[in-house]
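TASK: fixed-backbone design
INPUT:
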């Protein structure tokens, strides 16, 4: 196993496997009976209870599932950094993750992945490349990465104004934002 010779490769492949596992579980949960119960509770809690969805148990499963994946991600992060301090988790990180979800499209796993990849690229390399291009073509000496949160705020504002459902919305969110919710089901429920 020569490709696992250094620590960076080990963390890369481990992180990739964790991402694939998380996506697989998210897609499977979304299409399961429990996932449909979560959607029912999100849309109308009273109607879900009237249809026989056990609210407390279903909400507890939602919290437990979120805590499970958050714990796995936290353990991976702590292992990668070798130590964890409160300064590692600033408010900016929470806003950045929220921007990824809103930009990609809430309710759609693939939209969130697209939003995360786009904003991560902008954060790591894109803003520096844009700054270099602006400085070379306009003759300015502007440090664009210094204004990253302003740029992310503008991007989020543009997405919220012109595409509030996100880049790749779920079918339900697309219906809500474009034509309104109707009595027609978006898909057949299979048991």
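OUTPUT:
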């Amino acid at each position: 196993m020569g490709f696992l010779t250094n620590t960076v490769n080990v963390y890369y492949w481990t992180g990739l496997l964790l991402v694939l596992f998380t996506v697989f579980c998210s897609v499977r949960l979304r299409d399961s009976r429990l996932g449909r119960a979560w959607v029912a509770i999100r849309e109308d809690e009273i109607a879900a209870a009237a249809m026989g969805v056990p609210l407390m148990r279903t909400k507890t499963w939602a919290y437990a599932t979120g805590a499970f994946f958050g714990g796995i991600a936290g353990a991976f992060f702590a292992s990668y950094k070798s130590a964890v301090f409160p300064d590692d988790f600033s408010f900016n990180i929470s806003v950045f993750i929220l921007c990824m979800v809103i930009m990609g499209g809430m309710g759609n796993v693939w939209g969130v992945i697209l939003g995360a990849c786009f904003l991560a690229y902008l954060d790591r390399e894109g803003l520096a490349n844009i700054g270099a291009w602006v400085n070379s073509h306009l003759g300015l000496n502007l440090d664009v990465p210094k204004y990253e949160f302003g740029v992310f705020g503008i991007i989020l504002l543009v997405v919220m104004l012109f595409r509030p459902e996100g880049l790749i919305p779920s079918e339900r969110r697309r219906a809500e934002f474009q034509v309104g919710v109707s009595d027609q089901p978006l898909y057949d429920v299979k048991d």
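COMMENT: Helices lie at 7-30, 33-43, 45-50, 55-81, 91-104, 109-138, 148-162, 171-178.
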